[in-house]
Amino acid sequence: MMNDQQTGGQSTTQAFMAALQQAEATGDVTALLALHAPDVTLRNLTQQTWEGEAGARAFWETYLGNFEEIRSEFTRTHEAGGLGVMEWTASGQLRGGHPVEYRGVSLIELSGGQVAAFRTYYDSAAFVVAPT
């Protein structure tokens, strides 16, 4: 029997990382959204919380909309006890062509092989574009 953090022989965290990279490469969030529970909550450094399927779609489409291109490289991951931890570096170009590179950590709370909650913490200073 598969434990609740395994999906097709890989951990939910591994599946999440692969789906995020696919979404970043293609702009299609479908595979990423399929990993989220119907009542998922998502938070970043803003005060806003996104909830449910519509909230997850809005969160990920907004994320991708910030960039002309973006690629997350995962440097360290761990999954245990219903929690997935991902340390990463993202690089690419913001809308308007300004290059960006930043680091962060994302946490996913897991339930039944799905993402029940997503939280991400990152270097927001990387998004400040100095006037020219």
From TrEMBL:
Q: Which domain of life is it from?
A: Bacteria
- InterPro entries reported in the protein's UniProt record: NTF2-like_dom_sf (IPR032710), SnoaL-like (IPR037401)
**Residue ranges annotated for the SnoaL-like domain, each copy included:** 22-117
The protein's name is: SnoaL-like domain-containing protein
Q: Which organism is it from?
A: Deinococcus caeni
